[in-house]
Write a structure and sequence with these properties.
Helix content is about 35%, strand content about 25%. It has twelve helices and 17 strands. The structure holds zinc ion.
Length: about 375
């Protein structure tokens, strides 16, 4: 499957027409070229190949292109799951979320996403007494809110690896520099662990977010004129929870850390995205993806991963589907999705097609 919607553009900052589909120097430029038209195009091409070659199949192969992934899943995957589940009910899914990671034009590893964190937009509301700005008040809500935000910025929820993230760091260590490999293999070390985690927190933002439920204060609102003490102030936290996080206990821990009765912690109102176990590393499809990787990218390895961001895969895993995130080339560790001059390597899309096609035939093709 692939999603056909894209995010907007800052048109004046592009060097080409972002919606022109410009091909230049071996790349296809355009908004959505890497997120998620590579998956959308590969899905279409595989469907056409199976049809034209009349490939005998043991399983149905279903193609799904959907909208709304970037912000309005209610008209996309949520709608499909709710209204048309019978059309897409399946054991396995292949979608966005991974990538074929290259360094100096060589494929180092193929990342396959098996799970993702759960977004929980959380609000802090500080309440005090309004009054004249010429007479400072101890219960000024802006002061209380600022202190609460500062405490949460320092707070690190407990670290916890799962099957996927443990395998991720172990396998990543085998293709990393000795310095990085040391960090990846000592995260859970009883003695060095805390120091290693602190190092990741400062220098490897994505790896750090993989270790724990994360909290990022991203909006702060309070006050309206300089001589008025406002009655309340509000902050919005982007909380990305581990799938197995006990959210009741998590919010209790935030209240303990803030330790201020004038600051209310408000969890998100709607239930949000479904939770699920990570997709398995021993399923027929994961094994097929590993075999396809060995064939198409010999010398590289397959690394399962947990996304810090969110995809439509959460809704499928919530229905019990073993869903795997893949993608075309990620060159020198740099994803261009949502950025200016978003582009994909044409060679990369071709190799990506070969890789997914091989896995699809492996799992769904007739065995005799
Ligand atoms: Zn996407």
């Amino acid at each position: 499957m692939g999603h056909t919607d894209v995010v907007g553009v800052e048109r004046e900052k592009w060097t080409v027409d972002p919606f022109g589909g410009v091909i230049k120097d071996g790349y296809l430029y355009g908004r959505g070229s890497g997120d998620d038209k590579d998956n959308a195009a590969v899905t279409l091409q595989i469907l056409l190949m199976l049809h034209r070659q009349k490939t005998p199949l043991d399983r149905d192969v279903i193609a799904l292109w959907e909208s709304g992934e970037e912000a309005t899943t209610s008209v996309g995957i949520e709608y499909m799951v709710r209204e048309h589940w019978d059309k897409i009910d399946s054991e396995f899914a292949i979608l966005e979320g991974g990538g074929i990671v290259t360094e100096k034009e060589k494929v180092v590893y193929v990342g396959v996403a098996t799970t993702e964190k759960v977004p929980n937009t959380t609000t802090l509301i500080a309440r005090g007494t309004s009054g004249h700005g010429s007479m400072p008040r101890p219960d000024n809500p802006i002061v209380h809110l600022a202190a609460a935000v500062a405490k949460l910025a320092e707070y690190q929820p407990p670290m916890r690896l799962n099957e996927t993230t443990r395998a991720y760091f172990q396998r990543l260590a085998t293709v990393s520099s000795p310095e990085d490999a040391f960090l990846y293999t000592h995260i859970e070390d009883p003695v060095l662990g805390p120091m290693v985690q602190e190092q990741l927190r400062k220098t490897m933002l994505s790896q750090n977010s993989n270790l724990r439920t994360s909290i990022s204060p991203n909006i702060i609102k309070g006050g309206f004129r300089s001589n008025v003490i406002p009655g309340d102030a509000e902050a919005t936290l982007d909380v990305r929870a581990l799938q197995d996080e006990d959210m009741t206990e998590f919010y209790a821990s935030l209240r303990r850390v803030i330790n201020d009765p004038s600051v209310e912690v408000v969890p998100p109102k709607n239930p949000g995205r479904p939770k699920s176990a990570p997709s398995r590393l021993d399923s027929d499809l994961f094994r097929a993806l590993e075999r396809a990787q060995a064939k198409i990218f010999p010398g590289a390895i397959t690394i399962p991963s947990m996304l810090n961001g969110a995809t439509d895969g959460a809704y499928l895993r919530g229905k019990g589907v073993q869903a795997y995130g893949v993608g075309s080339y990620v060159e020198n560790g740099e994803s261009l999705a949502h950025g200016n001059d978003e582009r994909v390597s044409l060679e990369g899309v071709g190799k990506f097609l070969e890789f997914v096609y091989d896995a699809v035939i492996d799992v769904a093709g007739a065995k005799n």
